[in-house]
């Protein structure tokens, strides 16, 4: 589709020309013919005055579809909202699905929000206000309230009438939820099974009561896991007392899976990946905070080496292995960190105790440390013809790796228990910190062996 | 849902008891009542003899559903296939969707495959053979041939008859594809728009001809991007001459997005994340190859430090800053690597030239290097009261960071151009290699400044 993407760019230039020459009908015809995603990409490329021209050419409904398609976690459109006339803006929010409207409105301050609410349909305001109460990154914050519901003692044909009537509004009609009179969730029917059934069959005979559902406060990673494991297109969200509140759809889950992976990856690299296409100055501004902060942590290591100056001047051979030990321990620490972060974000480790996780990582550290230590012991003893030096470096390597593995798991697991995102612990941080402990371990052990060295 | 997960485990124990006591009807009733995902998890937990008992209690169709649900990239079930009677096994493959059957059969050798094919329905064998021709990680390898197709001059009601007839077999019925008499793809209609239309409307009046489709050889990351951007549930796959070949569905794309993120992350950490729940010995076995390989690369750095022994003995103060410079350059290199890998896997960088990518990263390196170099110049000059020492360390830091940034982008971009997966270049590899260049740069620059130091 490479050539089609090229044409899209040409089409954008053409559209921009039509917009600027105020060629209304030609613009509308070409523009509305495009997929909503392309429309929203076009919208985001416009200048201030072009955007104002666009608002005058599109209905609130057409504009709302564009807003639906923008990923507000990546692009902040709140400044744009201020340029839109209040009547037009509130009409846009009235047309949007409630979950997306709530997502944008959360980003405004109370006063701005209230002024939009006063112009909106009251029933939409109530629903949006309810959605805004749910914590970020929970099922509640992902769900939409626009789903199709039927009751158990309906026939298939009457259910199909309900579906046809709500098809325009509903986020998906491919799952139909069966509720009792108290709005409690009883089960689900796929549209597939409805259309292959006879008109006069009762819903109660078709309903699947083994329904997979989530609590409104369930964290979003857990919700994503249900989609992945059970190959779902939508998942119902219920309150503590099984009241049907809304549904989460698979398109929102793709964004969640993407964001979660991105955040783990960003953490490991010690650089925020939100927007990788930036100019060198923007990129540098993103990377420097970590680099400079770690530089000062590294100064700690430097002054530790300085502190052990007496030792290095007695046996200058010691200086040779500093970077080897810090580097290898740093690598081991990074591996341990990465595995721990991934474990925490992928699995239900809630059931496993803090200590069993840490113990497993210490054990892994002991095994890798022992084998790496033995290897370097053999290499150094042979290279420098000094078994005691080999022993000092080998034992130091063994201890440094074990400690680095411990730190690599202890820090993310600890942060997770304290309620922080474990992905914030970065790879560069772990390896810089392990430099410090490795140098300390190395010189402490070398101090014991000093009379056999040089 | 934590308590439900617990019950699942209890249910598993109960099921296992029913299976072992050969309580056929009770077992079938309880087992088949569970979601396919849970059935497949149960299957994977069984012992050899329990699996044999299971085969005798389930029909090939029931067993095929279980096979459909297993992720063959993560779990190798080919050994299990050998324990299954050939007639039963070929019946299972006949019941499976062709894409999943092809996925498993690719893993067998030619002889094994042929013996299964001889017992299968010829039309299924032809389709599976066709699917097996497509390269891994392309649209062709992800697609299934079970989609719903109608022609343009049909009415809605006759299209609904086609849909009802194929609903059992098709992977999804929520998108209906409109083909001409030569099987060329003309457009798509959603089931949603079909069920809200009158029975006698013509398909040609409803069809959306601005269809998003992919070529059968399109790489899977690109396919995943269409799903993400356009919020699709399924995407048609066509040949070079627009012949409709199959569809890719969103559940397979979730696995692709997951796998891609996992592989980028594994690369950055220098450890394969395929299975994070292993015992310490298995974990150590996974991590040691990288650690030991990098240990020998690190020995290069150590012998370089050894080589510059004359310099350190003249000015022992130089030893203090080795780990600071190698550590900081390693951090910068890791950031650069991470951004480059992500850029390559997220975006169409095909259009950007090799050199513009590398140049951008060098520019970022120059900016971060200059600021970090100035910082360390100020700190060292002040700490050691020696401006020339500060200058030596600062200039070395500047050069080391620029080189590390260059390496961090050059290696993944180069691997990508040569057709390798850029994610294979690991963070620990970049930081260990940058240790070597940093030490070389540091001592070379210190050599110039040597008469002002000590």
Q: Can you describe this structure?
A:
Two copies of one chain form a homodimer. By secondary structure, chain A is mainly alpha-helical. Chain A has 22 helices and six strands. In chain A, the strands form two sheets. A three-stranded mixed sheet of chain A has the order 1-2-3. A three-stranded mixed sheet of chain A has the order 4-5-6. In chain A, strand 2 (175-179) and strand 3 (185-190) form a beta hairpin. The longest helix of chain A is centred in the last third of the chain and has 31 residues, at 354-384. The termini of chain A are far apart.
One letter per element, helices H and strands E, the order of chain A comes to HHHHHHHHHHHEHEEHHEHEEHHHHHHH
Oligomeric state of this protein: homodimer
Structural class of chain A: mainly alpha
Radius of gyration of chain A: 30 Å
CATH architecture of the largest domain in chain A: Orthogonal Bundle
Helix content bin of chain A: 55-70%
Q: Briefly, what CATH class of the largest domain in chain A?
A: Mainly Alpha
Total strands of chain A: 6
* Ends distance of chain A: 67 Å
**What's the average pLDDT of chain A?**
86
The best one-word shape of chain A is elongated
Total number of helices of chain A: 22
CATH topology grouping of the largest domain in chain A:
Tetracycline Repressor, domain 2
Uncertain stretches of 5 or more adjacent residues of chain A: 1-6
